[in-house]
């Protein structure tokens, strides 16, 4: 009998959360809940927040659940959910009370900030210990994240290290490596440090005035980066494309010589998980020039599939970008090695199979 899996996500379809949308491919009867850390919407249905006045009074008198929690509990029972896959540790922490009342199993998927932002980790310390005790499996996306959740108190035997897989459309990409075009894809936020990528590129155009940098994405640092480009006199060299579809990004991969991303640990501790764009770039056979940050070194092999530099080492990043332009055939060599490694070790099928196994074990465990 097909198991019924509820996926809990704070957002319905954030453009930067393609990995969550991919989880809807899991071979279960999927019920996708979204809308806050205690989700109040079920995809394909009207809001689940349809609690009568009598029910609200009873819930308040008992005091063990909030009205929002009760509405979610009521829906889980109605949908006969077997297991919950909680996207982000903070989601799991906020719904744990409901899941325990429903007596159903739970798998928790950490993604990045939820295991790194200092305020979040400290504020949820007690709740995280509770979910580590209750959850059947805890999914992490990098070796560094695995170490972090162990330090938070998660039993190592519950941890499943599962890397995201790139969209398969990028595996058919055929870059020409002929244009002196670098590509950056990602949100304009502190941990992706787009301004440092721009500073690195500024050194490149001094030697290669035909070079160009295309930056894809949106975010709070976009206006700052546009001002930086203007003040550095790079307006004719740097182009901002905004949010692009996977197909549009694929076409940009085909006309670029390398992918660049200077990720850093933000002041508040926020770190990447394993950036999907890095996986996609390597699947598209582009060399990656990035930093020794979070899950990036798990994916990018220095001198084999790309180049890695220490965080905030802008000068060395510039040197590797120049090296890609200077040495004919290097981009193709690194890019093809990257694609080969993606196909062998980082496919979406492998990621989904690991999640599938974790959910199946969780259901069996809860029914014992």
Describe the protein.
This protein has about 375 residues and is α/β, with parallel strands linked by helices. The protein has 2 domains: about 5-165 and about 345-365, Rossmann fold (3-Layer(aba) Sandwich); about 170-345, Rossmann fold, CATH 3.40.50.2000. About 45% of the residues lie in helices and about 15% in strands. It is built from 15 helices and 13 strands. The strands form 2 sheets. A 7-stranded mixed beta sheet has the order 3-2-1-4-5-6-7, with helices on both faces. It has a 6-stranded parallel beta sheet with strand order 10-9-8-11-12-13, sandwiched between helices. Helix 7 links the parallel strand 6 (about 135-140) and strand 7 (about 160).
Beta-strand content estimate: 15-25%
The assigned CATH architecture of the largest domain is 3-Layer(aba) Sandwich
**Largest pleated sheet:** 7 strands, mixed
Number of helices: 15
Question: What is the CATH fold-level name of the largest domain?
Answer: Rossmann fold
Order of helices and strands: EHEEHHEHEHHEHEEHEHEHEHEHEHHH
In whole angstroms, the N-to-C terminal distance is 17 Å
In the sheet with the most strands, the strands line up as 3-2-1-4-5-6-7
């Amino acid at each position: 009998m097909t198991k019924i899996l509820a996926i809990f996500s704070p957002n319905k379809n954030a453009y930067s959360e393609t990995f969550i949308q991919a989880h809807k491919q899991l071979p279960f009867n999927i019920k996708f809940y979204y809308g806050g850390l205690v989700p109040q919407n079920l995809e394909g249905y009207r809001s689940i927040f349809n609690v009568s006045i009598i029910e609200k009074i009873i819930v308040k008198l008992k005091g063990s659940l909030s009205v929002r929690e009760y509405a979610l509990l009521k829906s889980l029972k109605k949908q006969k959910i077997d297991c919950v896959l909680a996207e982000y540790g903070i989601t799991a922490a906020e719904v744990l009370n409901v899941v325990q009342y429903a007596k159903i199993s739970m798998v928790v998927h950490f993604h990045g900030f939820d295991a790194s932002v200092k305020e979040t980790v400290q504020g949820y310390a007690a709740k995280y210990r509770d979910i580590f005790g209750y959850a059947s499996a805890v999914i992490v996306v990098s070796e560094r994240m695995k170490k972090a959740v162990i330090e938070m108190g998660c039993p190592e035997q519950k941890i499943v290290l599962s890397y995201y897989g790139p969209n398969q459309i990028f595996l058919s990409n055929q870059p020409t490596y002929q244009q002196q075009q670098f590509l950056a894809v990602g949100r304009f936020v502190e941990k992706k440090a787009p301004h440092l990528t721009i500073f690195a590129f500024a050194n490149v155009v001094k030697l290669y005035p035909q070079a160009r940098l295309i930056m894809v994405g949106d975010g709070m640092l976009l206006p700052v980066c546009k001002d930086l480009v203007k003040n550095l006199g790079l307006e004719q060299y740097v182009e901002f494309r905004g949010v692009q579809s996977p197909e549009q990004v694929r076409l940009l991969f085909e006309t670029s010589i390398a992918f660049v991303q200077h990720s850093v640990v933000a002041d508040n501790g926020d770190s990447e998980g394993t950036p999907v764009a890095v996986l996609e770039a390597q699947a598209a056979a582009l060399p990656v020039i990035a930093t020794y940050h979070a899950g990036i070194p798990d994916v990018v092999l220095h001198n084999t599939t790309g180049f890695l530099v220490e965080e905030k080492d802008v000068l060395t990043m510039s040197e590797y970008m120049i090296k890609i332009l200077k040495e004919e055939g290097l981009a193709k060599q690194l890019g093809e090695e990257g694609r080969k490694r993606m196909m062998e070790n980082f496919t979406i099928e492998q990621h989904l199979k690991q999640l599938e196994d974790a959910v199946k074990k969780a259901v069996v465990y809860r029914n014992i």
